[in-house]
């Protein structure tokens, strides 16, 4: 039986088909824009390989868009009908759980798979991805540390394992280990977008802004052919400029980098969750600093209104609400709140609970803030503050929700709540609030 590049036996019709699978996996790991075409070519070679149909389902789910779920389920039905070995069937079971709303069950199945097959890089990468978007950073770190001893440094995919080690450790606060792993992955492959991204996070956390700008711009010559993660790296570059008060450069990067509406990548997926998170969170930050962002909220609000009721990405929901309220669409914002409540009531599983306990309070706070009810916004968001990590997203991304709470507390004159928030960020970020643009004014005022 053929096997993949990491030595796992798989149900491929030929070695050529197995190599096409490996080529698709490499594109997935390295965030290449042509990855869907790689999968299409592999399926053309072997239309009866269960793992290829499972990957088709995974790619549909990775978009975090409810309209793509039927395609994922159809691909899984085809994969199940093809059988496959025990490992492949467990892959299908994990993706089936995800498609049915059971992300926590899917993560558990991938973890079980990795305990037996630590070089199953598809299971590893899906576990890493899904865990991140459910706020499970400790699980990300534990999984990579358990798997790595079973890998050889010359094995295909090892650099991507290092990149994931870098990001997992960064999110768990082990910044020295994170930076070393990320830089080693980049030494092996300067085009490794996930490794470049992980080191950018370390530099962000430590307030190393000039280094951060140099890190991204210095590597950018290697990034041709990347997918939407390029937008997120551009967002990180803008975040470094934001911290330096270089708001014109932030807006330039917004228009030509992470929210370039003329980009073929953006046009292919105009409402991709992470791209819209990048855009909404940056506009929110800019407006807090008194920057005129012009009409940039308009197209985001259009996208947000079109996604009312789609709750697959809990962390994206407050960003949709930012767009609706910033553009004055308060009626649509009210409809969105009702849709979140309906979803939380009608569904079981971890995501429904997270939407109810974390996303909904943030969205309610944004609408109350838009109505000038800042004290009520603080009151509705306060019980959720300790659990916002479950929404997923990195420390750098979640920062915008903490700024929301701080903004409302200061507007309401609720100094105790403002101090609570500043203490939270002081405990987590090596860079003190006085040196961070979103907190410095408030930290000075509360001295």
From TrEMBL:
Gene3D superfamilies: Tetratricopeptide repeat domain. Keywords: Repeat, TPR repeat. Belongs to the TTC38 family. This is Tetratricopeptide repeat protein 38.
């Amino acid at each position: 039986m053929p096997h993949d590049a990491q030595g796992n036996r798989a149900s491929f019709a030929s070695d050529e088909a197995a190599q096409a699978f490996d080529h698709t996996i490499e594109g997935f790991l390295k965030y290449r824009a042509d990855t869907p075409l790689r999968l299409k070519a592999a399926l053309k070679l072997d239309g009866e390989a269960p793992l290829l149909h499972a990957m088709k389902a995974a790619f549909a789910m990775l978009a975090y868009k409810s309209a793509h779920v039927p395609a994922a389920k159809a691909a899984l039905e085809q994969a199940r009908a093809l059988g496959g070995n025990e490992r492949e069937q467990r892959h299908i079971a994990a993706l089936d759980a995800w498609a049915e709303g059971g992300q926590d069950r899917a993560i558990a199945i991938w973890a079980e798979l990795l305990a037996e097959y630590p070089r199953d890089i598809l299971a590893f990468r899906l576990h890493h991805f899904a865990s991140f978007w459910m706020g499970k950073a400790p699980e990300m770190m534990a999984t990579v540390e358990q798997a790595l001893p079973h890998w050889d440094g010359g094995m295909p995919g090892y650099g991507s394992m290092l990149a994931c080690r870098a990001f997992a450790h960064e999110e768990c606060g082990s910044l020295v280990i994170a930076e070393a792993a990320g830089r080693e992955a980049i030494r092996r492959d300067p085009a490794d977008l996930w490794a470049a991204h992980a080191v950018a996070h370390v530099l962000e956390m430590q307030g190393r802004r000039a280094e951060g700008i140099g890190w991204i711009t210095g590597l950018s010559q290697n990034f041709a052919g990347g997918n939407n993660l390029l937008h997120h790296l551009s967002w990180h570059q803008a975040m470094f400029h934001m911290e330096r008060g270089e708001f014109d450069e932030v807006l330039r990067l917004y228009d030509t980098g992470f929210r370039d509406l003329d980009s073929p990548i953006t046009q292919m997926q105009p409402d991709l969750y992470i791209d819209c998170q990048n855009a909404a969170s940056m506009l929110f930050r800019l407006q807090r600093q008194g920057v005129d962002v012009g009409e940039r909220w308009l197209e985001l609000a259009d996208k947000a209104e079109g996604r009312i009721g789609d709750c697959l990405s809990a962390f994206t929901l407050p960003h949709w609400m930012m767009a609706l309220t910033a553009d004055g669409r308060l009626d649509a914002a009210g409809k969105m709140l009702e849709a979140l409540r309906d979803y939380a009531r009608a569904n079981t599983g971890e995501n429904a609970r997270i939407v109810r306990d974390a996303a909904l309070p943030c969205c309610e706070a944004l609408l109350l803030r838009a109505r000038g009810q800042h004290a009520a916004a603080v009151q509705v968001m306060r019980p959720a503050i300790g659990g916002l990590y479950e929404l997923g997203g990195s420390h750098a991304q979640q920062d915008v929700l903490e700024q929301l709470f701080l903004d409302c507390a200061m507007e309401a004159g609720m100094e105790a709540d403002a101090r609570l928030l500043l203490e939270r960020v002081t405990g987590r970020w090596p860079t003190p609030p006085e040196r961070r643009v979103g907190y410095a004014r408030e930290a000075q005022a509360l001295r």
